[in-house]
Structure prediction request, 295 residues.
Amino acid sequence: MTFLGALLAVVATDTLAALLAGGRRPQRALAAAVAIGAGLWATRIPAEATVPRFLVVLFSIVPVFRTIDLLRDETGFGPGRRWLHVFSLVDSRVIRRGPPGLRAGGVVHVALGVAVGTLAYAAVRAASDLEGWRMWALRWLAALVFAVASSEAVYNGIEEACRAIGLHVPALHRHPARSRTVAEFWGVRWNRTVGAWLRATAYLPLARRGAPRLGVAAAFALSAVTHAWMIWLVIPGWLAASVTAYFVVQGLLVVAEARLGVRAWRRPLSHAWTVTAMTVTSPLFTEPMVRVLFP
Prediction:
């Protein structure tokens, strides 16, 4: 199957999910299964084409979140509105209309993200010419910079693209490099689209029942399963386990820093804790990323 064919198959499958999400309970349950299964179309693309596979999986994962929105909140949307919501990169319920225009700061962030990401991409490629620990050090550090820079470019780019046509969305990325704790990084600053979804889907239902710590664990567990599923659809095997381990470790770091009272430390020290923790654990995530995006 071609890349375009897989994308069209995902659209058709998730259109079915959007239709089922407005039905009775059995149909609504089936809607979630259909949306999750849409990612399987990526496996029809040749195994060596990891980047096209990844793009198809990435395109298929947002409709999973949005379909679960419809099942969890019972919005009462009609078929057309459900379809738009399922394929919306940002939760369509929080998008507001406003005057069109671009923000200079947002455009600068996009440009810097693209520039730094491009340099980091070249550095990851160059690492293969080295040997031993130098190769791994450059590979993992450059991959980490690439992940951060490209995320800045993508999320700020989405915000500015929406603003350009008069659609205002909440901040999708809130300067994650300024985080003073791992909890702040994941819960307040990094990828607020996914963060808000995890909060509503995994954390709040348990927190409201008096189990906030279990809610945090559930959010990290759900994130681990989601990322592992995405990686497994691209390259089946141990890479999915590595990503799972990464998010398990992140959850343990959140528990550890709460007990250590990191938030109350002086800013330079708490910031150093966060940067060190995220950097040291990053190979568990960046190595699978490199094998997917840098074949």
